[in-house]
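Can anyone check this?
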Amino acid sequence: MGDTTADVSLTGITLDSRAVQPGWLYVALPGTRAHGAQFARSAVESGAGAILTDDEGLALLRREDVPVVAAADVRRVMAVMAARLFGEPARGMTMLGVTGTNGKTTTVALLQAGLAAAGVLCGTIGTIGFRLGDAEIPSTRSTVTTPESPDLQALLAVMSARGAEAVALEVSSHALALGRVEAIEFDVVGFLNLGRDHLDFHRDVDDYFEAKAALFEPGRSKVSVIWVDDPRGKELADRVAGHGASRLVTVGTAAGVDYRLECYRPVDPLGGTATVTRDGETLDLTLSLPGEYNMIDAAVSLAMLEAAGTPTDAALRGLRAAQVPGRMQRVPLDGPAPMVVVDFAHTPQAVSAAVESLAVLGPVITVLGCGGDRDADKRPHMGAAAARASALTIVTDDNPRSEPPEDIRAQTLAGARAAGGDVVEVPGRRAAIEEALRRAAPGTVVAILGKGHERGQILADRTVDFDDAQEATHAWRRLTEEGTQDAATLDE
């Protein structure tokens, strides 16, 4: 084994042996198919200055001509090393972290909008990508909701160098379980809700909750903002109040909370108003997104923004103007047409919330699929959630990945049909979108759920270009040109 005591100057860090550059630290971690230690020789040949690994990796390594360190909590050490190598970029910016099963992306976008209205340049990191203000930051690095700690620290360093004063970050349960946000002390963190998701990764719902609760442990943040109408949120608030390590701000609909959300009213076509009372003052909150669940995200955002020092008038102004790609995104169609809305809803709770919020505008035709190689047990629940609130549910494909699409559809259909209502199966997402539009009349709402902002569809052996909003536009154009759109079908 290499000398573990030698001093070495490191200039970068990576988990990918193919990305190693001279003088970098190579972190060898266990993967789904192989341990990174098996690629250590390649990393050293590319110039790695040292290797960090776990005990399993240490046993796999041959003698290397660079220092090797094994750590029990290797992911935490990696995160700390990454932060130091990039100059602790988070310390110079206001850091806001958001967790919850549903609503993280929307809340991060709302935070950015509120900060922008106050003249604060804010970076955003999450499911729909990385941005600084209105500019996208291209990246070939890990583009999961919360990147691995070396990628995350590199991204924070780029944002800081470009003048970011704040960063709003989606913090997934995976990120917390895998130590991706270690070495970051947040100024404000927010909890939205806990529903069923990611049980292909977590042992059970309790394990899933504990992963998210880690963001609210002592030393993680200065202020904890929690939606306490969610039972798990109430449990979490009690914990935070118990340890007292961060200031607790509660948001909910009952008396006694710090920010009380009341009087929600939908505004046609896609928006809503409500009031928020805090410190004896009642504020009017307006949102250009439909659904009470989005207003909940806005109330949590308002509390987080004020906790971060944002002036109230700027926060409210920013929230009013905010739009989120792929989240209740309206697709404009020519001529007398149904309302088409694209949304990322991909959990039972999110599907219910999306369809129910749209049902106040007219009968809803829902196009829905479920992802392959993910929690299969939620599929019938998603089908049932759609069927209960839709005039018609069209079950189709999402990202099947390595699973047979017909098997995924069968599981989703089972739940939808058990819930009752009109349910049909249409293989192929493009065909399903076209079928929904063919059946829709003006006054009908077509909800295309599951993929939202995504620009591709993941099949067994490839990823193909696929954008739900574009597909709806093209399908409508074909139908109107062919004269085959049938406004009466839904009522037959």
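Reply from J.R.: I decoded it. Residues 27 and 349 are 38 Å apart (CA to CA).
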